[in-house]
Amino acid sequence: MSDIIHLLPDSVANQIAAGEVIQRPASVIKELVENSIDAGAKNIQVLIKDGGSTLIQVIDDGVGMSETDARMSFERHATSKIKDAADLFSLHTMGFRGEALASIAAVAQVELRTRRENEELGTLIEIAGTRVFRQETVQCDKGTNIAVKSLFFNVPARRRFLKSPSTEMTHIRNEFYRIVLVHPDISFFLYDNDTEMMTLPATSLKARIEHVFIGAYRKKMDQQLLPIEAKTSLLTITGFVGRPEFAQKIANQYFFVNGRYMRHPYFHKAVMVAYSQLIKPADNPNYFIYFDIDTQSIDVNVHPSKTEIKFENEQAIWSILLASVKESLGKFQVMPPLDFDQDGLPDIPVIDSSTEIQVPKTNFDPGYNPFGATTRPKRPTLDWEQLYGDFSKPNRQPGFQNAPTDSEAGFPAPLQPEQQQELDIPDTSTDFFQFKNKYILTTVKSGLMLIDQHRAHFRILFDRFIQKSGPQKGITQQVLFPEILEVERDDLHIVEQILPDLRWVGFDIEPIGKSEFAINGIPSEIEMTSTLPLLKDLIAAVRETEISVKETIREKIAVHLSRQTAIQYGQSLTGAEMKELFESLFACENHQYTPDGQMIVTMMKYEEIENKFK
């Protein structure tokens, strides 16, 4: 029997490695820009076309490479950062594994131009699918210019799973932010399809944060940043946290360790504990926190993307982080101070010791006896025969015409008693009661029915929006004073994506500038003084979930519109409003659960009530 174990060809091994390192165009940006930073570049340009699927180009003014180094950089495990295993635990640079360029060259067409400062000519190398097609000496600028074309050209399955250019560009920007927020001393330039998207000059850390995140959703980032600082023998913590009043559902939250971005849910919990009782449960604060710690106490080589880091003393760091954030919030008087202002208080006169105090006098009747004889009203004499005789007469109100029956008026006939027993719902004559301005109570044959008023209205509005998003366009009510929706540059493609569906459900929105839209009308079902929070939450939700199917976008719009505009808890309802809400709910196809799966109606059986009194 022949042997069955054999070594993989280099081309296949490189593609396997590329699957771990290069997940999407944003991964290429990360690897190439980090290499430029390690090369000492002070100006880095990033050029993108078609979301990175056509072209990703990074140009820097770093030290460059010799002809031999340029060729060796595409070999697997070729690196200038480490020499033995001990170096893995004392890393101070970004890239170190030596697989980035080899992995990129395995799944793309790569063109590299590089020159060192003390050399007159540089080196040009062209590689596609790990095969070197060209290597020669050329004239080029100092530094490195690397262009990655046709990403995943030889892996069709991977290329098919790339998202739309706008979605991939969103991931590229997010990866770009994680890099530029650590290196404010370097100038960065980002271009998308030959359009300048971002220019970040070398500046301070706070100014860099403001340049990156200034915009409509960032809510005046320059006014909300509070510095934090903690120096201990274990580590040093610096950075900025946002004021609680600027918290939002989709916040900008970044952790960096020794200049490297990381995700850490445990440390995130420490920050959220510091903000407890200061923000709403659904909101999140902005924070940009930087850890400077001994490289011997962390391990960064635990994940191919290097965003997960292990710490030797996590619990101690958790306590230090919590204390530093709390100290910053307290030092800058985030909590409202006590108001000792005396304006508006009543004027209390000062007592003069020489003034004689008069005893208050009262007038009363000393001869009054509340238990004495009094004249009691006589009970009226009733004609019982006449009283009982009225029950046998038709129920007619004087001065009113006889109302038509349901069949005469064109309404459907009421349910028969046996039908009501089958559905176990009250008839139209049943009274409705509101409990704690939150629940609607009514009696049914089997016991007591409880309805959540907010969830019930949520379901009703959702069904209406879904019906209107079908063949029939929603009704628009024009507003007297149009509102202006300011959209951030990162979210312009999202607005363009959902704008047709917003118009279909009843919004009248028109662009009036590069990043501004006028809201001239809203759906007729919405009763809100301002729809800006609703639209901003909707855009944030679409950005977070990366919705790409049009029907799903319509459903997401319907969910957000109906949830935000439904009757809220604490709102008092009249009997007629509760009755209308009840009838509309049971006219829905599904009256038991909301669109997101929460229970609307529950029952308390008659037997359960009886058992309460035993």
Can you give a write-up of this model?
With 614 residues, the protein is of the alpha+beta class. The protein is 32% helix and 21% strand. It has an 8-stranded mixed sheet with strand order 5-4-3-6-2-1-7-8. Helix 2 (25-38) runs parallel beside helix 6, helix 14 runs antiparallel to helix 17 (550-565) and helix 15 (492-505) packs across helix 17. The radius of gyration is 36 Å and the shape is elongated. It starts with 9 loop residues before the first helix and ends with a helix. Residues 336-345 and 394-423 have low confidence and may be disordered.
Overview features:
19 helices, five-stranded mixed β-sheet, 32% helix, 614 residues, alpha+beta, 22 strands, eight-stranded mixed β-sheet
Helix/strand/pairing class, anyone? alpha+beta
Residue-averaged pLDDT: 78
Q: Which term fits the overall shape?
A: elongated
How far apart the termini lie comes to 82 Å
What proportion of the residues form beta strands (DSSP E)? 15-25%
Major sheet characteristics:
8 strands, mixed
- How many β-strands, per DSSP? 22
> What ranges have pLDDT less than 50 throughout 5 or more consecutive residues?
336-345, 394-423
Q: What is the quaternary state of this protein?
A: single chain
Report helical residue fraction: 25-40%
Strand order of the largest sheet: 5-4-3-6-2-1-7-8
**Radius of gyration in whole Å, from Cα?**
36 Å
Number of helices: 19
